[in-house]
Design brief:
Blueprint lengths: L11 E13 L12 E13 L11 H15 L3 E5 L3 H8 L4 E4 L5 H14 L4 E7 L5 E5 L1
Parallel strand pairs: 1-3, 3-4
Antiparallel strand pairs: 1-2, 2-5, 5-6
The structure holds zinc ion.
Length: 143
């Protein structure tokens, strides 16, 4: 039989939620987030496909977990996420602390884009990544 299409431009979507803790601070910013602090973050990684595989899935949740959750656990969880231009980055690295550097300010928007970029690089058919920085605030990136 092969793949099951569904015509009409419709899409199947699946979402995997990944919880992780991270620290950051924002540069060029006057609010509270200019000081180092942490969040209990929640990333929602949404995959989509116009068709399902032979199992009737966009992708096995287990497979999504193995790829993107493992990456988040290894690179972002319990790390300071900083802009590479932040002088704090060098200090922490010198002290042997794990940091994850972004070219841009480590806002929820940019962290969502980074997770999106990595998920794409892993071959996941990612459509959108939403990062919940708090229970009430989220930012998402999609392409
Ligand atoms: Zn913050």
């Amino acid at each position: 039989m092969g793949q099951i299409g569904n015509g009409g431009g419709a899409l199947f979507r699946v979402t995997r939620e990944i919880h992780f803790c991270y620290g950051h601070r924002l540069m060029r910013y006057a609010g509270k987030c200019r000081h180092p602090h942490g969040h209990n973050g929640r990333a929602q990684v949404e995959l989509s496909s116009p068709r399902l595989d032979r199992r009737g899935m966009v992708m096995d949740f287990d497979e999504i977990k193995k790829k993107i959750q493992t990456w988040i656990d290894d690179h972002l969880d319990h790390r300071m996420i900083l802009c590479q231009a932040d002088p704090l980055a060098k200090l922490l690295q010198k002290a042997g602390e794990p940091v994850y550097l972004l070219k841009e300010n480590p806002t929820a928007e940019n962290i969502a884009r980074e997770i999106f970029r990595v998920a794409r690089g892993q071959g996941l058919p990612v459509r959108r990544v939403t990062l919940w920085e708090t229970e009430k605030s989220s930012a998402s990136y999609s392409r």
